[in-house]
Amino acid sequence: MSVDAFTVLAEPTRRLILGRLLEDESGVNELVEALDISQPRVSKQLKVLREAGFVTCRTEAQRRIYRIQPGPFQALDDWLQPYRALWDRHLDALERHLDNLE
After folding, report:
1. What string of H, E and C letters represents the secondary structure of 43-96?
2. Can you give the residue ranges of every domain in the chain?
3. Per CATH, is 3-101 categorized as 1.10.10.10?
4. Could you list the pLDDT tens digit for every one of the 102 residues in the chain?
């Protein structure tokens, strides 16, 4: 898992785009309208997301349709798993402590 994934996701516009693409695949103009962001900015961020492997693009007539690629998200999830386990242990300990107070 590369730190580059975190750099890609650090940009708020990219996260907005990914959030919209999570609902359904979309063309650039649909993203511009839905997110109220300029077309050049959306296109620039889609390029970064595509180059990082977070989205793929297919051409349909004159339109480019973007969709999320799950691979990078799985890599992020794998990286986060030990931290999730740490929180689970702490929450379990808190639950035991609260049970003992009753």
Report:
1. HHHHHHHHHCCCEEEEEECCEEEEEECCHHHHHHHHHHHHHHHHHHHHHHHHHH
2. 3-101
3. yes
4. 444 888 999 999 999 999 999 999 999 999 999 999 999 999 999 999 999 999 999 999 999 999 999 989 888 888 889 998 888 888 888 889 888 887
